[in-house]
Specification:
With 365 residues, this protein is an alpha+beta fold. It has helices spanning 38-46, 94-105, 118-125, 140-153, 170-186, 198-204, 222-226, 232-235, 337-342, and strands at 2-11, 14-23, 26-31, 53-58, 61-65, 70-71, 79-82, 158-162, 190-195, 207-212, 215-221, 240-251, 256-261, 264-269, 278-284, 289-291, 302-314, 319-326, 329-335, 350-355, 361-364. Bound molecules: adenosine-5'-diphosphate (ADP) and magnesium ion. Residues 11-14, 32, 34-40 line the site of adenosine-5'-diphosphate (ADP).
Length: 365
């Protein structure tokens, strides 16, 4: 199943021409700087803005195909919308706000659609203690959780979230992200999620669409996109590849856990999850040392063999980002041009990636 999107539109200040196709269900993060066209994509998906040309197909259902004269109005699209600032009804309790979403769907009373049910949504978002409260007594993060719940109870086929955490401080963000992670696994729903915060990409994205100045500069799975040395994402100080992993072995005596992902193994400080649990790791490029021979007599736990897939020079930084192909994934390493010469790194040549277990960021899925 997939979500295919094409949009052409001219505003006085910008010409937009964007196309991508990602798998569905799953969270697709639209990532890009402000003014690049992300909200325009969301508005077109919701049917609130009719672009010059637009085609949107989700799991075989056509929401728009302007070339063929198809343009479903918003109320027929079955989309849920969550914006930066939740507009809850101030005179209604949280429960009534939530029930409003459910009523608007016009079904769900009998639960026949098998979609999100009241108790399930309340539980997933942790809003049971808030049900009798009025919106003005809630914190920003609580309000956003209620807004997300209301959108879900309308039984959408597509959830659109435009910078839902942007107005929250980092403490509130950290508080709400685990709820979004739980939702993501519990609900099998395509989600378009706009952000310019990398932490939300790391935590939530299944697919990533990079948007820049009205264009899509790249799209793919989060592992593919974060592991490409040729994209701007890799040039960030905190750039690094993300790999989807499973717990494969616990070594209780040494307090280590071995993860498998990308066709490779990674030892990390013990993770208290059962074997086979899904999680993500992110390996910052600046933390990955390259070697041509395995070193001896050092504390290192991870010596990961790979193949040099691409070398991208960063002249301004006097560094090179090396893309290291694994059996089914890739890592990034930032080194100096001098290291490239000394190790005689060439495309398709072998290389060892040396990674401290404590440098690996473990992200619970
Ligand atoms: P983003 O959500 O990535 O910040 P937007 O999609 O909101 O970007 O806007 C992209 C650009 O399109 C903006 O910089 C603006 O110049 C232009 N734009 C957006 N909406 C309108 C509009 N209604 N009328 C004219 N120009 C617009
Ligand atoms: Mg926007």
């Amino acid at each position: 199943m997939s979500l295919a999107f094409r949009l052409r539109h001219r505003f006085p200040s910008i010409q937009m021409d964007m196309a991508f196709e990602v798998s569905s269900p799953g969270v697709t993060v639209l990532f890009g700087p402000s003014g690049s066209g992300k909200s325009t994509l969301i508005a077109a998906a919701a049917g609130l803005l009719r672009p010059d040309e637009c085609r949107i197909e989700i799991d075989g259902r056509l929401l728009a195909d302007t070339g063929a004269g198809v343009w479903l109005p918003p109320e027929r699209r079955r989309v849920g919308l969550v914006f930066q600032d939740a507009k809850l009804f101030p005179h209604m309790s949280v429960t009534t706000n939530l029930r409003f979403g459910q009523r608007r769907a016009g079904y769900g009373k009998d639960g026949a659609t098998g979609g999100a049910q009241f108790e399930e949504v309340v539980d997933l978002l942790g809003i049971a203690p808030l049900l009798t409260r009025r919106p003005h007594t809630l914190s920003g993060g609580e309000r956003q959780r209620v807004a997300i719940g209301r959108a879900l109870l309308a039984q959408p086929h597509l959830l659109l979230m435009d910078e839902p955490l942007a107005s929250l401080d980092s403490a509130r963000k950290a508080e709400i992200l685990p709820y979004l992670t739980r939702l993501k696994t519990a609900l099998r729903l395509p989600v378009l999620y706009v952000t310019h915060a990398l932490e939300e990409v790391i935590q939530l994205a299944d697919s990533v669409v990079l948007v820049e100045a009205g264009q899509v500069s790249a799209f793919g799975t989060v592992s593919e996109i974060t592991a490409r040395s040729d994209l701007k994402l890799a040039q960030r100080d905190d750039g690094g590849a993300l790999l989807l992993c499973r717990t494969a072995e616990h070594d209780g005596a040494r307090q280590l856990t071995r993860l498998e992902g990308g066709g490779a193994s990674f030892w990390v400080p013990q993770v208290d999850l059962p074997l086979g649990a899904a999680l993500r790791i992110r390996v910052p490029a600046r933390e990955v040392i390259l070697a041509s021979q395995p070193p001896e007599g050092i504390s290192l736990h991870n010596i990961v063999p790979g193949t040099v897939r691409r070398l991208t020079a960063e002249p301004a930084r006097r560094s090179v980002v090396v893309e290291i192909g694994l059996p089914s994934g890739a890592l990034l390493s930032r080194v100096t041009p001098d290291a490239v010469v000394r190790l005689e790194l060439v495309q398709n040549g072998p290389v060892l990636a040396l990674i401290k277990s404590t440098s690996i960021e473990v992200v619970l899925a």
